[in-house]
Design brief:
Elements: E1 4-15, E2 18-24, E3 29-31, E4 33-36, H1 43-55, E5 60-61, E6 81-89, E7 95-107, E8 125-128, H2 130-135, H3 142-157
Length: 158
């Protein structure tokens, strides 16, 4: 079986010590904002676009950026994590599809979620504190709990 791979960008949006998550309708799991990186789009641009589309929020990415620059090179905001995620696994354990995920943390000034047209409704989103993430860890993917906690802490320290 051939494995297909797509590049995606994810943002753990944090506001007032909580991270925004929704139950993804296709994957049937709780996830942060994110989606596929469009052709000719940079990962951090996709992260900001997906956050605007899904949450209606503009965020400040908490992302370091090196100062390497020349007439042909420019540094970009760096993701906090870079993960390979199995999306489609068959009964024999073969992986049919994977996401190569650039994961960013973002600070939002508001919790007022207003999704764009065609996106999941605002009521599908919830704000999770660190204790909420721990308390609902049986309902949430382990990586979402861990990265959500790290995002809250990073935004608090930034």
């Amino acid at each position: 079986m051939e494995t297909t791979r797509h590049f995606v960008a994810t943002v753990y949006v944090v506001s007032e010590g909580c991270v925004a998550l929704h139950e993804h309708s296709k994957l049937d799991m709780w996830l942060p904002a994110g989606g596929h990186i469009d052709r000719d789009e940079l990962p951090h641009e996709a992260a900001l676009r997906e956050t605007r589309e899904e949450l209606g929020l503009d965020v400040d990415l908490i992302a370091s950026q090196q100062d390497i620059e020349s007439e042909t090179v420019k540094s970009m905001p760096q993701p906090q994590h870079f993960l390979l995620e199995d999306i489609n696994v068959n009964a024999e354990g073969e992986v049919g599809h994977q996401h190569i995920d650039f994961i960013f943390y973002g600070r939002a000034d508001s919790r007022n979620i207003e999704p764009g047209p065609g996106e999941q409704p605002a009521d599908d989103w919830e704000w999770f504190s660190v204790s909420d993430l721990r308390d609902r860890s049986e309902d949430l993917p382990t990586d979402v709990v861990e990265v959500g906690q790290r995002a809250i802490e990073a935004v608090r320290e930034a």
